[in-house]
Records
---
Amino acid sequence: MSEPATRCGFVAVIGAPNAGKSTLVNRLVGAKVSIVTHKVQTTRARVRGVAVKDRTQIVYIDTPGIFAPRRRLDRAMVAAAWDGAAEADATLFLVDAGAYRAAGGPDASAAARRSAEDVDRIVEALKGNGAKVLLALNKIDQIPRQALLDLAQRFDGTGVVDDLFMISAETGDGVGDLEAALLERMPEGPWMFPEDQLSDVTDRLLAAEITREKLFLRLHQEIPYDLTVETERWETNKKGEIRIEQIVYVKRDSQKALVLGRGGATVKAVGAAARAELSQLLETPVHLFLTVKTRERWEDEPARYREMGLDFAG
């Protein structure tokens, strides 16, 4: 008797910034393939995470958050998100249920209102495309059950929802049912990646992203969005140890001073945290060296976009 056919397909995970897309993709893949911080617009490029379940391989596309773009980088990120959805076999629309509900209250924060506006904008775009999506209401531990059911009914009435799930990407609650539904939607076909490959992200880019994650977690206000990290050199010595040299680009000298910290304390702490995680992920000692440079218009340089896998045009 012949074995059942293999299945393979792409799932694009879209949503407003900070909806929990990267946390969910990391959980579904079973490994860290996307960086996660509490700050919006952390994910800038489309990151593909690969998961295998029995005879099915799912390639999850963790897309940048979709929001109202103002700058060239904004437009490139939003375009990458919609491109990811266009090439997928299934689209998963993730909504921060707690933030969306809070946006309707009298004491709603500006961030909650922006998030809800972004969600509504995505719904309208999906209506315009005639698209049907799997909707996952995330962070269900932050909202009362009746309010959650009311929210589910509201989204169900938009006409864009093919199936709806209530989950917590952080704890895994409900994620199993969601994964089962995605597996059912994958078409027959050969696998795209080897069974042991977890992502299509290069080690150089992953290293840069991990350092950027540590900078985001350490710094505040506008600085994280105004910086980028590039891996300039990558060398492996005879012992198998890796030497990585990276450049942190910021827009202003005042930002450079904040990234460095007094006596270089901040950048040293960031480097130590990134080095520890990279050593664990790469399973070999890593020697990481960070240089901070001011580059006022790095967002207007095509090379920066190529490094992030984004389209500079637009």
---
Amino acid sequence: MFFANRGIALVAVVILVVFAAIALLSISTFIGQRVLNQRAQENNLASLYLAEAGIHRALYDFRLHDLTANGYFTEGRTTIDANNSFTIGVNQVDALMTDTAGTYLGPSTGAAKSRYRYLYGARIQNTTKSKTVTIARMVVSWNNSYRLTRIRINGSNRWTGSAAAPANCDITDFALNTTPTSYPVDYLYFSGNMSGATVSIQYLMLDGSTKTVQMFPAVNQNNFTVKAT
């Protein structure tokens, strides 16, 4: 009977040891996972702050250069210390600044003032000093039955034809180089009076990126996009 009791006690001790080992392993795993999660959260927060620093740096550079000429920022990596850095990088359409705040309708020289067929006043600019951005195509949309016949940018015709809305215009590629310059979209010419129409343009860039802006009636869309990681 004595040996039987000792056997039962030994089994109980073994069971307790196993349960204790399992409990300790669970607690250790929990603590280890908690530490890893905490570290991951700290890394994520640090990454967010670094990316925000990159965006603020780009905007600061743009505003600084805009005080004396056309604003711009530069892409690339900035090292903070041995373990931290941020990288500013954008696709072509992000860097394309489109200013439609001053657009207006008007006639050509000597034409009757009732023939508001020309849409003037838009401007475009490359906001980087590190990437050439190229407009490959323009899709022009408007809400009447007249036809688009010409697009002129920076003093030269980039597309001629006769297209109803939406006009998918494969323009002669227009490159905005890395010398920050504000280029005029001289005019869009239509076959009839565009008074009362709403006109928008989708810019398709050489890298495949796109964006759409309202060109008329004039709205303040003098904007671009900055990305940082």
